[in-house]
Design brief:
The complex is a heterodimer of chains A (95) and B (480). Chain A has 95 residues and is mostly helical. Chain A has three helices and two strands, in the order H-H-H-E-E. Chain A has a domain of 39 residues: Orthogonal Bundle (Histone, subunit A), CATH 1.10.20. Chain B has a single domain, classed as Amidase signature (AS) enzymes (Alpha-Beta Complex), CATH 3.90.1300. The chains are: A mainly alpha (95), B alpha/beta (480).
Chain lengths: 95, 480
């Protein structure tokens, strides 16, 4: 299972992580090596086996729609790297 | 002074010591050993003394419970209101949560005194604390060796007497493996038993919070405080919480224990398997019937785990965008800001797992990797179900090796991942597991894992307690 340099760049773009040249080379090697080892999964017969997403047998959990206080805006904005009045400030999304 | 919860509680109740005095002693201990061990990211001395003062008032009023006034350490991936919660990541180095995790709320309500937040592998991804972006924690039994991880700081704090007890989180062994490496008791409850609200998410279908303590009695006491349904965690189970201390008995007559042969993997150290063999004989002497059994899909657990956990992590960690909180890079454009924030904010292991998970979930690979892993997960679960029709619990080593040297596995991700080989299947199946001290190999701790049925914590604790009471391992202390 060879993960090429192009594939590493494609995945990095999907994950929105910038990588330097050293990281690209190393991740290409390491991901290839890990996936080689995980190939053994393909040997397991899983015909008619349903997937498990989580181990709890709860379905469509609901709760009463009680009205409770929300966090005060000041508490939530206290960690904001850049704020503008009561908003988080970001670079333009659409130019 | 190094006391258990039970001992400290009695001293406090009998007014032999105040919580302020007890807390001060622990803060002094932290002061004297931290430069050497580095278990704690943040020491919360002032707040601890304030909590201790309140605990002393509760004790004076005769309203104290078993945990009132007792110093505890909390893994730094659980939100603590007003106290920074770093996940040992540059991304959250200065993050101060506006709320408490449910577990923290419960420990506060029980009157516990938080003396610090403990170090971990960044975002709980690792088996040695070497992936902490802040610093590496050292094993008190040999400071050239790792304490295990990711809850390494919590395990060391308990082993070295920096706190009476601790809480950690366990996604693939992150409580049990460091507990084994530091010769303390560490338990991962059944998935859904303890609320995950306020635990910084790594792999949501696998994460579970649990205690790290000096003995099994303390483990039961801490479980009594943290277990239970929480409306804010939709995977928490609405089942009543038993008094876990009631299950602590010393007779194992009639107990049937299975020993799955697949756990004795290639690369297991003979010192570890010898210690477990000796422990099995002890369990037999105590009345248990021991049989070898087989869980044939065990060899696939590593691959299943390292597809599913990174996949979930890649989705969970998408929230770190440098907008709402945490580290933020200000670039010329939104995309540059986002990509540079994540490049600079995450360490190598976190990036590796996000990349692996993103790959396994991406178009064209989802069925072959993620869906396949989920299906094999079903087979592993079924195998546990079948085993528990025959056995009350399963016994395995906690880890195939004793603590390894700092740096030894850092360049080889797969070798590092293999140190969780005995603990991963437990999270995959969602069943509970506990690691207890089971001896030493060349002076280094060996942990024994007891795996229980879903919500079978009581039988698991009984077995652990009976073994502990028949041995002296838990009384040995590392010289720091």
């Amino acid at each position: 299972m060879k993960i090429s340099r192009e594939e590493v760049l494609h995945i990095a773009r999907l994950a929105r992580i910038a990588l330097n040249e050293k990281e690209i080379t190393r991740l290409s090697e390491q991901l290839s090596n890990l996936l080689d080892n995980f190939e053994i999964l393909q040997r397991v017969n899983t015909d008619n086996v349903p997937p498990t997403a989580q181990s709890v047998d709860l379905q469509s959990v609901t709760r009463d729609d009680d009205v409770t206080p929300s966090f005060p805006p000041e508490d939530i904005l206290a960690n904001a790297p850049r704020r503008d009045e009561d908003c988080f400030r970001v670079k333009p999304v659409l130019e | 002074m190094q006391v258990t919860i039970k001992e400290a509680s009695k001293l406090l109740k009998d007014k032999k010591i105040s919580s302020i005095e007890l807390t001060s002693e622990y803060l002094e201990r932290i002061d004297s050993v931290e430069s050497n061990l580095r278990a704690l990211v943040t020491v919360t001395g002032e707040q601890a003394l304030e909590q201790a003062r309140k605990a002393d008032e509760v004790i004076a009023a005769g309203k104290n419970g078993p945990l009132t006034g007792i110093p505890i350490v909390i893994k730094d991936n659980m939100c603590t209101r007003g106290v920074r919660t770093t996940c040992s990541s540059k991304m959250l180095e200065n993050f101060i949560p506006p709320y408490d995790a449910t577990v923290v709320e419960k420990l506060n309500a029980a009157g516990m005194v938080m003396v610090g937040k403990s170090n971990l592998d960044e975002f709980a991804m690792g088996s040695s604390t070497e992936n902490s972006a802040l610093f590496t924690t050292r094993n008190p039994w040999d400071t050239d060796r790792v304490p295990g991880g990711s809850s390494g700081g919590s395990a060391v704090a308990v082993a070295a007497g920096e706190a009476v007890c601790a809480v950690g989180s366990d996604t693939g062994g992150s409580i049990r493996q460091p507990a084994g490496f530091c010769s303390v008791v560490g338990m991962k409850p059944t998935y859904g038993r303890v609320s995950r609200y306020g635990l910084v998410a790594f792999a949501s279908s696998l994460d579970q919070i649990g205690p790290l303590t000096q003995d099994v009695t303390d483990c039961a006491l801490l479980m009594n405080a943290i277990a239970g349904y929480d409306q804010r965690d939709s995977t928490s189970i609405p089942e009543p919480v038993p008094d876990y201390t009631k299950s602590l008995k010393t007779d194992l007559k009639g107990m049937r224990l299975g020993v799955p042969k697949e756990y004795y993997v290639e690369g297991m150290q003979s010192g570890v398997s010898d210690a477990i063999q000796t422990a099995l004989k002890k369990l037999e002497e105590l009345g248990a019937v021991i049989e070898e059994t087989s869980l044939p899909h065990t060899p696939y657990a590593l691959a299943v785990y390292y597809i599913i956990a990174p996949s979930e992590a890649s989705a969970n960690l998408a929230r770190y965008d440098g907008v709402k909180y945490g580290y933020s890079y200000e670039g010329d454009t939104m995309w540059e800001s986002l990509e540079k924030t994540r490049e600079n904010g995450f360490g190598p292991e976190v990036k590796r797992r996000i990349m692996l998970g993103t790959y396994a979930l991406s178009a064209g690979y989802y069925d072959a990797w993620y869906l396949k892993a989920q299906k094999v997960r079903t087979l592993i679960r079924r195998e546990f179900d079948a085993a528990f029709e025959k056995y009350d619990a399963l016994i395995t080593p906690t880890s195939p090796t004793v603590p390894f040297r700092i740096g030894e596995k850092m360049d080889d991700p797969l070798a590092m991942y293999l140190s969780d080989i005995c603990t991963l299947p437990v999270n995959i199946a969602g069943v509970p597991g506990i690691s207890i001290p089971a001896g030493f190999s060349e002076g280094l701790p060996v942990g024994m894992q007891v795996i229980g049925k879903p919500f079978g914590e009581e039988a698991m604790l009984l077995i652990a307690y009976a073994y502990e009471q028949a041995t002296e391992w838990h009384k040995r202390r590392a010289e720091v």
